[in-house]
Specification:
Elements: H1 16-28, H2 31-38, H3 42-56, E1 61-62, E2 68-69, H4 71-95, E3 102-108, H5 110-115, H6 117-127, E4 131-137, H7 140-149, E5 154-158, E6 168-180, E7 191-192, H8 193-196, E8 201-204, H9 209-219, E9 227-229, H10 232-240, E10 245-249, E11 260-266, E12 270-276, H11 285-294, E13 299-300
Parallel strand pairs: 3-4, 3-5, 6-13, 7-11, 8-9, 8-10
Antiparallel strand pairs: 1-2, 5-12, 6-10, 6-11, 6-12
């Protein structure tokens, strides 16, 4: 028989303040910055971390050469965020569920931030004036884990395999060609993918890449991009600089410079953008208010 665990029956006594301080020190990468963000003194932050480390029995941070979580700290971080998010939901629901207020951390992709959020913020401000939306830019594959661990309160997902419970479609867009205005095809009402691929094509190395590659290889199986660029602004500057053409979501239209034009592609390849909260805990009332404000008017781009 194995030796009984010495931790069996042990109750870990920690406080919400300790957990909040722990998360803030990780996210700010330092005790002084965490103290400023929390409105606490640095000695108070250090004491909270030391007390938490004593409770768990092992260090949660290395202090030199820079403050960073230990392997145990990294392991506990998602759980700590989830605890804080659940308490935030509890508090918000208990205070005044009929009149939601407070902060909502909303994760979106770059194209959604630039092309859609400016249209949504006025709608939300009118419908939920006491809710403040903090927009965080994220890659598509980061959003669901962030939601479930409590790092964010809501997200706008792109083409989820299924709409999560409570989620709604907030917008639809499509992929389009980006060309210089002096390109021979720039004045066409639409162009085929095959026509576009007569030019060198620059592909985004972000989360859009699989869809763009699928669009291109469906027309030309041997397609290879001339460049792959992570930053969308850099990609657009390269198109403007005669390096090639590109395929991007129509939500990126607002990012085009004076030298560029966006032309619809055929066949059409569309995207669906879905606003959702976490699936493993109740939503903040403020997130529900944001959803309800736009439930009847999904946008198209």
């Amino acid at each position: 028989m194995g030796r009984p665990s010495s931790n069996r029956g042990r109750v870990l006594k920690v406080t919400l303040v300790q957990i909040r301080v722990f998360v803030e020190v990780v996210e700010r990468a330092g005790f002084a910055k965490a103290a400023d963000a929390l409105g606490m003194s640095q000695p108070s932050v250090s004491h909270a971390v030391a007390s938490l480390e004593k409770a768990v029995g092992r260090p949660l941070f290395v202090r030199q050469p820079a403050v960073a979580p230990t392997p145990l700290g990294r392991k506990l971080l998602p759980h700590a965020r989830s605890v804080l998010a659940s308490f935030h939901s509890f508090s918000a629901s208990a205070l005044d569920p009929a009149s939601p207020s407070g902060d909502v951390r909303l994760a979106v992709t770059l194209t959604a931030r630039t092309g859609m959020i400016p249209s949504l913020l006025p709608v939300w401000e009118k419908a939920a004036p006491h809710v403040k939306v903090h927009v965080l830019e994220a890659d598509e594959d980061e959003m669901v884990p962030w939601l479930e661990e409590g790092a964010i309160d809501a997200a706008i997902l792109i083409d989820p395999s299924e709409i999560p419970p409570g989620g709604i479609v907030v917008a639809r867009d499509a992929f389009a060609a980006v060309l210089r205005k002096d390109h021979p095809l720039a004045a066409e009402p639409s162009i085929s993918v095959t026509e576009l691929l007569d030019d060198p094509v620059i592909v985004s190395a972000s989360s859009c890449r699989p869809r763009v590659m699928e669009i291109c290889t469906s027309a030309v199986p041997a397609f290879r991009p001339v460049q792959q660029v992570r930053d969308l602004s850099t990609l657009l500057r390269m198109v403007a600089g005669h390096v090639g053409v590109s395929v991007v979501p129509t939500l990126a239209r607002s990012m085009l410079g004076d030298e560029l034009v966006m032309v619809p592609l055929h066949p059409v390849s569309r995207r669906t953008l879905v606003l959702t909260g976490p699936s493993t805990r109740p939503w903040l009332p403020a997130v529900t208010a944001l959803r309800d404000a736009i439930a009847l008017q999904p946008l198209s781009f």
